[in-house]
Amino acid sequence: MNLKNKKTKAFLESILIIALGTLFMLLGINYIPIIDILYPAFFVILGVRNGIRYNIVSIIISALLVGIFVDNYTCIYILISYVPFSIVLNYMINRRKKAQETLIVTTITLLVSYVLSLTLLSKIAGVKFINELEQALQLVLKGQLDILSEMGLSSHQMYETKGILENMYEYVVLIVPSMIIIFSAIAAYLNSLISILVLRKLGYGIAYVPRLSNFTLPKNIIPGVIVIYIGVFLLKFLKIFYYETIFINVSVLISFVLFLQGLSVIVFFLNRSRLHPAIRVIFVILLIISIPLSAIISIVGFLDIIFNFRGIKKGI
Questions:
Q1: Rounded CA separation 253/244 (Å)
Q2: CB within 8 A of 224, min separation 6: which ones?
Q3: Digits of tens for pLDDT over the chain (316 positions)?
Q4: Is residue 255 in a domain?
Q5: Reduced to 3 states, what is the DSSP secondary structure of residue 18?
Q6: Looking at the domain assignment, is residue 231 inside a domain?
Q7: Which range marks the domain in which residue 314 is found?
Q8: Which end of the chain is more exposed for a tag (fewer CB within 10 A), N or C?
Q9: Environment class of residue 289 by beta-carbon count within 10 Å: exposed (0-12), middle (13-18) or buried (19+)?
Q10: What span, in angstroms and rounded, lies between the C-alpha atoms of 309 and 301?
Q11: Alpha-carbon dihedral angle through residues 16, 22, 25, 26, given to the nearest 10 degrees
């Protein structure tokens, strides 16, 4: 294929990706918000195929189009949150970086981008994310209490239920920092996984695939956790503000990585079983959404750190 044909092909692919990406983002904004996190994958695939400049130009044009259909704030959010991330992931794939390195770098990039976009939008629009979340939770609380009152609960039962719900929502507000970190890690992993799988289907010789079954924490994670908790408890003795918030968020993050470790062990052995792939997927989804089992899965992850059930060689 000569240079002119290559440029024509890249241009046509860019137009297609801009259209698909824009429609995908609009679908997410109006109907299924959670799918928005997969938006960068369109442009990463385009960039790996035709050059990173096509990625950059196309995602910027797409963000501007979304801004026209929605509003300027959404455009700014996309530009700050997803453009740097798509560029970094594009670069990491081009350089054939290891899966673990790619996940760490892209998660940090996405985390910083999210924080910057939320901070900037709060200054421009005058609306703080935490305040918006608190107001949304208050509306949810009011709606739940209205439903319970229609069920004929006594005033004492209503009082107890209200107290439980208020404590739960206060906890949700407290763990916002750790949830943003976790959300960034999940988004980075899914975009990396989808981009690489699609590129491999298109014939690109990418050797690694960031599979969940291969996820493993470093062997020094337990001493590291102990040091972290010692540091957190020192904050209490030094009477540092927000000690409880820091402690809760650290605990949530540690629980999350142990949960991932445990889930990866389960997925590893499920892949070795004779169960149908569809059944395996359904089983894993049920495990993820089953809150009562999360503690058990985290324990499995902790035991795997000690006994290495999968026999995976761990880094330092």
A1: 14
A2: 218
A3: 566 788 889 999 999 999 999 999 999 999 988 899 999 999 999 999 999 999 999 999 999 999 999 989 999 999 999 999 999 999 999 988 888 889 899 999 999 999 999 888 888 877 666 677 777 777 777 777 777 677 776 777 777 777 887 788 788 888 888 999 999 999 999 999 999 989 988 888 775 767 888 888 887 888 988 888 888 888 777 777 678 888 889 999 999 999 999 999 999 999 988 888 889 989 888 888 887 788 899 999 999 998 888 887 765 4
A4: yes
A5: helix
A6: yes
A7: 212-316
A8: C
A9: exposed
A10: 10
A11: -130
Please tell me the total number of residues recorded for the chain in this structure. Answer: 316
In three-state secondary structure terms, 102 is helix
Task: For residue 90, give both structure tokens.
Answer: 């594009």
- Nearest residue to 172 via CA among 138, 122, 121, 128: 138
Q: What angle do CA 290, 130, 80 make, to 5 degrees?
A: 95
Structural domain count of the chain:
1
The rounded distance, in Å, linking the Cα atoms of 65 and 22 is 7
Q: How far apart are CA 316 and CA 299, in angstroms?
A: 21
Q: Per the domain annotation, does 153 fall within a domain?
A: no
For residue 263 the two structure tokens come to 């889930």
Do 46 and 14 form a contact (C-beta atoms < 8 A)? Answer: yes
What gap in Å lies between CA 196 and CA 113, rounded to an integer? 22
